[in-house]
Amino acid sequence: MVRIVELLILGGTVFLGRHVVDAALAAGHRVTILHRGHSPAHRPGDVEELLADRDGGLDVLAGRSWDAVVDTSGYVPRVVGDSARRLAGAVDHYVFVSSVSVYADLTGGVDEDRPLHEPPDHEDVAAAYGGLKVGCERAVEAALPGRALHVRAGLIVGPHDGTNRFTYWVTRVAAGGEVLVPDALDRPVQVVDVRDLAGWMVDAAEDRLTGTLNVMGPRGAVTFGGLLAAARAAGGSDARFTAVDEDWLLAQGVAPWEELPLWLPASMPGYGGMLDGDDRCARDMGVRFRPIAQTVADTLEWARTAPPARGLTTGARVGAAGITREREAELLAAWRART
Ligand SMILES: NC(=O)c1ccc[n+]([C@@H]2O[C@H](COP(=O)([O-])OP(=O)(O)OC[C@H]3O[C@@H](n4cnc5c(N)ncnc54)[C@H](OP(=O)(O)O)[C@@H]3O)[C@@H](O)[C@H]2O)c1
Questions:
Q1: Which residues surround ligand 1 with Cβ inside 6 Å?
Q2: DSSP readout, 209-234?
Q3: Helix (H) or strand (E) holding 3
Q4: Residue 154 has what DSSP assignment?
Q5: Average pLDDT over residues 12-23
Q6: Predicted model pTM
Q7: Domains of the chain, first to last
């Protein structure tokens, strides 16, 4: 087994990247992070920090070499291709963090053989995130043929997740009382704990694993109802769940996934694979998933001590995802009053 000594992270300060930093340092590796400085370095005393914009600013890499790079901040093929070409002679191995959004068919049970989106001829990440990730994977593979690992992540959750998707349910249920939930309690919820993903990617870089795989969490391990029960247990709360008809919620204009996070209505089966993917390849490649109860408990502990979520808004929305208690109360009242 080849042991990494030097690891470069393109990113490394916000969520997945900061857990890669933690995992690499825990394994005894030397870590360099490259980022713009818009967010503060994680563990600045323990890592070397290169401040640069990877879009056009990679001269900072000149004359340097590392054993492996983990790229957590690649969204645009032109930019990722630039970093991959510059690093092809400077690293042995490239780990690219991709997404299951690469798949054009995201119905349930998504595996690595599903058809992919075509990369678009523009760079609008909001409009074509999945197609652009496909282009990024191809750009990395072209620059380092047979030396890259493409990690198609599912929903990444856990401490320091700024999206408030998973965290919304953990904190809302822990707060107790009557909780509005979509009537989808038996539907699968598949998430990957950020620490499982980060730790495995560091191991994979050590071992120079190559290829392409989904890392989405354990398949069939938990339902939406099971997640809510785990959150109630972790919070020791008195939460009571009012399961509301999905079509009624849609008719009220409630936005799936964003306002009620992790909610993918039955009427939108084309997205079911976001929370229901094949995990056999990941398990074969050595990924290990911790129990959901641990992820829930640690996320709750972090959320109770963390600074307010980035992007906090006023009005009906709170944080980056979820609804306010006021909006929830209005919807519950309207649900009760509907007949
Ligand atoms: N969250 C999910 O559920 C999910 C699901 C599937 C895939 N993914 C993938 O997982 C990755 C997310 O990782 P993360 O955001 O948690 O990683 P992170 O490494 O913790 O944070 C992103 C880093 O990129 C840096 N960065 C952003 N733009 C940059 C630029 N132009 N030049 C240099 N550095 C730049 C940021 O620092 P500065 O701002 O200081 O530059 C920050 O350090 C992405 O590739 C995403 O597509 C996420």
A1: 11-18, 34-39, 53-55, 72-74, 97, 99, 153, 155-156
A2: --EEEEE---TTS-BHHHHHHHHHHH
A3: none
A4: -
A5: 97
A6: 0.96
A7: 6-153 (3.40.50.720), 162-190+223-275+292-336 (3.90.25)
